[in-house]
Design brief:
The chain is of the alpha/beta class. The protein has 2 domains: 196 residues, P-loop containing nucleotide triphosphate hydrolases (Rossmann fold), CATH 3.40.50; 241 residues, Class I glutamine amidotransferase (GATase) domain (Rossmann fold, 3-Layer(aba) Sandwich), CATH 3.40.50.880. It is built from 17 helices and 25 strands. The strands form 7 sheets. Strands 15-13-16-18-25-24-23 form a 7-stranded mixed β-sheet. The chain has a 4-stranded parallel β-sheet with strand order 1-10-11-12, with helices on both faces. Strand 21 and strand 22 form a beta hairpin. It is globular. The relative contact order is 0.11.
Length: 509
């Protein structure tokens, strides 16, 4: 188990690295996190939902993701409530108080332990991940994911600490000393993560840490910026508020309060022709070439906030002035005529007008769509997945005012299109090179809104085979890129962690 001195110390990334290392060394590993709290999720091949981090770790293991790898997923709706997803299916919304009460915990504990047991019967080793800090003693009796799970699995525990945030000695010592004796004995090593500078300067500190904690330091891992592993927490987006750039296609992803599945934009962000940034600055939105409304866990709440902070009006003005607007999942719903929630699925907002750029109406439903999809894009077979609540239907009455004869609005075919505007429920849509090439071509060809109606540009019209994608990498390039990054991550961790000592710990030599 990779356990942490706190949140965002790097447990997920190191777990991903160990998954790939064990696979490279001839084992058959699988990831496991009993309980994950994240808005970034993934649809499994059988149409269920798990945390994105475990899907990434499964890829590093060479496996398809499965709900047994993350049996319990919490998707916050607000600061006080969360949707509970058990074995890949939502079982309702809970307040934080109700969820962490002792009553009913044993039923959830039984489910997550059963998932681990099924996984452990098929794979070896299991690379487990804890959550947050292992020293939250006030939550000890209700904890499902940290040391109680390690006890069930009889797991050796490696404590991961973030030296970049400071206090590494106190956080390691406190995390170990606050454990009960049985749990303390499970902690077999410390990994100091996110080190900056010359590692040789920490040699004395490493020895002191081992002496104080009575646990060996297996490695000191330097901070890296040249390896791309999908991140789970949206805190990383605050570091991506870039300026507009000359000579590139500027893509503004609207920064929503409840943004989800922001991993949708990693491939586009790495394209050298693109300057992608996250913003809720109205001036930047209006000046960008492409505006993307991303997914959200709270469509109505974020739509209301967009109207309050002026972003909704900025998007409409940008579209009117010739910019391209794309909506994905919840962002797609916002681009329509109305979003309604008559049964209070998301909260207490019954209905709001959308931005009116697409001829659809959306009604929130209790049931959730989770599935992997294959779709055709200008003659190319592409892939993605859907995770959403709500059904969007055509609004024929709205179509004429939006389309000038160029709109197609068939949600069953995965897309609704209008001049300079497209909406889709498909996550991973922008991981497909043909889609990116088409989008960038559209941005370079877009005409000002002052042009005559006869020259109105519909960017997603079918082009002759090969015309749009002649310079595109093969559709498999996104997966090939990921494989390369997993191997590079594994090499980085091998260099800075004593893997042989880790194997000795795991085999009790």
């Amino acid at each position: 188990m990779l356990a942490g001195t706190g949140s965002d110390v790097g447990k997920s990334v190191i777990a991903t690295a160990l998954c790939r290392i064990f696979l490279q060394d001839g084992f058959h590993p699988a990831p496991f996190k009993a309980q994950n709290m994240a808005l970034n999720s993934f649809a499994t091949p059988d149409g269920r939902e798990i945390g994105r981090a475990q899907a990434v770790q499964a890829e590093a293991c060479g496996l398809d993701p499965h709900t047994d790898m993350n049996p319990l997923l919490l998707k916050p709706n607000s600061e006080h409530t969360t949707q509970v997803v058990l074995n890949g299916k939502p079982i309702g919304n809970r307040s934080a108080y109700d969820y962490f009460r002792k009553e009913g915990r044993e039923e959830l504990r039984s489910e997550v332990c059963a998932a681990f047991d099924r996984l452990a019967a098929r794979y070896n080793p299991i690379v487990m991940e804890g959550a947050g800090s292992i020293a939250e003693i006030n939550l000890r009796e209700s904890d499902l994911v940290n040391m109680p799970m390690a006890r069930h699995a009889d797991a050796d525990v490696l404590l991961v600490a973030d030296i970049d945030r400071g206090g590494v000695f106190a956080s390691c010592y406190g995390s170990i000393m606050l454990q009960q004796p049985e749990d303390r004995s499970r902690i077999k090593g410390i990994i100091v993560n996110k080190f900056r500078g010359d590692i040789r300067l920490f040699e004395e500190g490493r020895k002191m840490l081992e002496e104080v904690c009575g646990v060996p330091v297996l490695g000191v891992v330097p901070m890296f910026t040249d390896i791309v592993i999908e991140e789970e927490d949206s805190v990383s987006l605050e570091r991506k508020r870039r300026e507009l750039a000359e000579g590139k296609v500027n893509v503004a992803v609207v920064l929503l309060r409840h943004i989800s599945n922001f991993t949708d934009f990693g491939t586009l962000e790495r394209d050298p022709r693109v300057n992608l940034f996250y913003t809720n600055n109205t001036t930047d939105i209006e000046r960008a070439d492409i505006i993307i409304l991303p997914g959200t866990k709270a469509t109505l709440d974020d739509l209301l906030e967009l109207r309050r902070n002026g972003c909704a009006q900025a998007i409409i003005r940008a579209h009117r002035n010739g910019r391209i607007v794309v909506g994905i999942c919840g962002g797609y719903q916002m681009l329509g005529q109305t979003v309604s929630d008559p049964d209070g699925i998301e909260g207490d907002i019954p209905s709001l007008p959308g931005l009116g750029l697409l001829p659809i109406n959306t009604v929130m439903t209790a049931s959730k769509t989770t599935r992997q999809v294959t779709f055709d894009w200008e003659g190319y077979t592409c892939q993605g997945y859907e995770i959403h609540q709500g059904i969007s239907t055509n609004d024929i009455a709205a179509a004429p005012s939006q389309t000038s004869g160029h709109t197609t609005c068939d949600p069953s075919s995965h897309f609704t299109r209008a001049p300079r505007c497209l909406g889709t429920y498909i996550h991973g849509f922008l991981d497909n090179p043909p889609v990116i090439e088409s989008l960038l071509k559209a941005a370079s060809s877009a005409v000002p809104a002052s042009a005559t109606a006869s020259s109105a540009f519909t960017p997603y019209a079918a082009a002759p085979q090969g015309a749009v994608c002649s310079a595109v990498l093969p559709p498999s390039s996104a997966s090939a890129f990921k494989e390369e990054q997993y191997d590079r991550l594994a090499a980085h961790i091998r260099k800075h962690i004593d893997i042989q000592k880790l194997y000795k710990i795991l085999t009790h030599d």
